[in-house]
Amino acid sequence: MHHFAxxxxxxxSGDFRRVLWTGxxxxxxxxxxxxxxxxxxxxxxxxxxxxxxxxxxxxxxxxGEARPVGPGDLVAVxxxxxxxxxxxxxxxxVLYTVYGPPEHADGTVHRTRDEADRAGE
Length: 121
What we know:
Elements: H1 6-13, E1 17-22, E2 27-33, E3 48-55, E4 58-62, E5 65-69, E6 74-77, E7 83-87, E8 93-100, E9 109-110, H2 113-118
Antiparallel strand pairs: 1-2, 1-9, 2-8, 3-6, 3-8, 4-5, 4-7
């Protein structure tokens, strides 16, 4: 069994992206977006994604729509949909996300978005 105190793990990570668990069909990732930062506009052609927000405030931009997000919010992003998530608050925007199928290499850790961009992810 894999058990995660996910809100605590996400809050304590501080990394832009940290893959916590990878299965054959899904993947769990914690993310922290710094103030003024964003995930960056992207599309996962064959991957559905759910993002659950733990703390901070931001804006979800999915499929041409924008909506504020904060603690307790969950956003679904269907495969093939353009999306971005932007931190609009004074502190970190902390979330965890589930990809189906997995999107990143198992064990991936990117401390910053720049590091993730350099890695091509």
